[in-house]
Amino acid sequence: MSLDVPVTTSPAAWHGPMGGARCCLAGTDDPWRAIARDGGSPMKGMLFLRTGVVLLLVGIVMGMVMGGRHDFTYAPVHAHLNLVGGVLMMVAGLFYNARPDLAGRLVTAHYVSHALGGVLLPIGIYGSIAGTAWAGPVVGSGSVLALLALLLFAINLFRRAPASVTAAALDSASAP
Ligand code: HEM
Predict the structure, then answer these.
(1) Is the CB of 129 inside a 6 Å radius of any atom of ligand 1?
(2) pLDDT digits (tens, 9 = 90+) for 37-55
(3) Whose CA is nearest to atom 41 of ligand 1?
(4) 148 in ligand 1 pocket by Cβ < 6 Å?
(5) For the ranges 3-7, 48-52, 98-102, 117-121, which has the lowest average pLDDT?
(6) CA dist 78 to 14, 64, 68, 86, Å?
(7) Measured CA distances, 122 to 49, 107, 142 (Å)
(8) Which of 6, 21, 40, 167 is the most buried (most CB within 10 A)?
(9) What is the pLDDT of residues 63-73, one digit of tens each?
(10) 175 CB less than 6 Å from ligand 1?
(11) How many helices (H) and strands (E) does the chain have?
């Protein structure tokens, strides 16, 4: 016996934080659609989460290599890659998934500055420990970008949901 349950092909339904269960049944309300109509982007949070988890994977492998070699010279590189590039990026991703109504240039600017800063900062710290000539500008620009990313995050955190996005839509979008 087959279960005759029609399924939507909406990409938002597959990639949203709801995991697709409730939203994928045709005929049910799709909060992502309501949010997208209001200019929101359900994919922004996932981009932060995916970038963060990739950087965390690189940082953790680096930690394992350090441990295996008993050489902790570059421990600060590992620490900054994991914390600034990985953890902070994923925290932002969780926030943007809970507030998919926030979209636009400020969120994109946050992503770009965080992604660049989260990579340049550990590279610059590596160069600094290794005593290279290029370390100064790289660590400097990485730190400025990381600070800019945090400022943009703060601005987005204090932004209010537009009145056109209903509280019910936001509630159901962030529900598990
Ligand atoms: C399998 C996972 C991991 C391994 C094998 C690992 C390994 C290491 C090693 C060998 C050190 C150097 C210890 C020392 O200097 O005596 C270290 C330091 C550190 N790790 Fe990890 N780590 C892992 C995951 C993480 C994660 C997930 C984070 C943060 C999100 C993190 C943050 C740090 C910090 C903050 C330090 C101190 C850096 C410093 O002293 O300059 N590590 N780790």
Answers:
(1) no
(2) 656 666 789 999 999 999 9
(3) 76
(4) no
(5) 3-7
(6) 33, 10, 14, 10
(7) 19, 23, 8
(8) 40
(9) 999 999 999 99
(10) no
(11) 8, 0
